[in-house]
Amino acid sequence: MILDREENVTIVLQENISLNAFITNFKESYPKIKNDNIILNLFSFSKLSSGDVLEFLELSDTHRKSNKSFVLVTDKVSYEEVPDRICVVPTIQEARDIIEMEEIERELDL
Predict the structure, then answer these.
(1) Where is 31: in which H helix or E strand?
(2) How many CA atoms lie within 13 A of 12 on its CB side?
(3) Could you tell me which residues come within 8 angstroms of residue 33 by beta carbon, excluding any fewer than 6 positions away?
(4) pTM of the shown model
(5) Structure confidence at residue 104 as a pLDDT band (50, 70, 90)
(6) Dihedral sign computed on CA atoms, order 82, 9, 95, 12
(7) How far, in Å, CA of 7 to CA of 83, rounded?
(8) 46-101 pLDDT, tens per residue?
(9) Which of 19, 34, 74, 89 has the smallest number of CB atoms closer than 10 Å to its CB?
(10) Which of the 8 DSSP states describes residue 15?
(11) CATH number of the domain that 68 lies in?
(12) CB proximity list for 91: less than 8 A, separation 6 or greater
């Protein structure tokens, strides 16, 4: 698992592994990054469904309750295919933009 940390954002990436193994590795690494905003880069998965993305829903809910952002990046699943409770965007830049907007909202207590 590759953890790329910049300021208060950690981008998580894993290559050549199954989704279940990725989730397991992420859960093991989570305590190290739980205080950061998290971007999960899922581009290494050639096939991904909305059901696969929903595997991250509980983790996303838990992380968001601690007032931190949790964004999944993939172009295989549209944000329209998953509940509003989970944030899915097609690019890393859009993930960064979402985090920036959410940080502003938190600062303004919206």
Answers:
(1) helix 19-33
(2) 21
(3) 3, 5, 10, 12
(4) 0.92
(5) very high
(6) negative
(7) 29
(8) 889 999 999 999 999 999 999 999 999 999 998 888 988 999 999 999 999 999 99
(9) 34
(10) -
(11) 3.30.750.24
(12) 73, 75
Buried b (16+ CB within 10 A) or exposed e, 28-55: eeeeebeebbbbbbbeebeebeeebbbe
Backbone φ and ψ of 6, nearest 5°: -135, 115
Q: DSSP labels for 41-109?
A: E-TT-S---HHHHHTTHHHHHHHHHTT--EEEE-SSS-GGGS-TTSEEESSHHHHHHHHHHHHHHHHTT
Count structural domains, the chain.
Answer: 1
Q: Which domain holds residue 45?
A: 2-107
CA pair distance 43, 21, nearest whole angstrom: 15
